[in-house]
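quick one, two chains, predict together pls
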Amino acid sequence: KAGVTQTPRYLIKTRGQQVTLSCSPISGHRSVSWYQQTPGQGLQFLFEYFSETQRNKGNFPGRFSGRQFSNSRSEMNVSTLELGDSALYLCASSLWGGTSRSPGTDTQYFGPGTRLTVL
Amino acid sequence: GQQVMQIPQYQHVQEGEDFTTYCNSSTTLSNIQWYKQRPGGHPVFLIQLVKSGEVKKQKRLTFQFGEAKKNSSLHITATQTTDVGTYFCAGDNSGGGADGLTFGKGTHLIIQP
């Protein structure tokens, strides 16, 4: 079974631009979660999508948004990029995710990540 | 919001020594998960603990969940160079809030041969 794939793997943007990252979950998985990983803040939860609906959202500004398609593929978008948005963006898929209140009670399979650099 | 603290941040050990990382949550957890991330890689799921006082073993790795379901530990016996990486705990607070899975900042295990 193919793992979680993320595209692109590397991205360089300048401040003020916007970016769209893509994640294809493991076949059959319906939950996709997005995380931002930085050396200083570690892994921070962005949001989770399940059956095309955002089920949970972390504490990030509205510049960060996402969506999920009927085939469970997910995209996240960051508008008006700031230098501090430079990070590794990881998506994780799971079969069901968690309860309706939080993900993670089901095993999360992470993709390789997209390394975003904002200049 | 929920906070998950993990210590130590870095741990240097000689190959063959034991290693332990500790995880503490500010709230009672419904379950806790552990992940390992190799340098340059992505987090890989290791185990999930659900029950109060639960202990699980995977070869040289022993995972414990505290009685109050607010803390957890991972112990590696006789470390090997393949154990190098960052170990994360992740707390799941299904009881409320929309924080999702809260990760600790991880413990970087560095092994000196």
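The mean pLDDT of chain B is 91.
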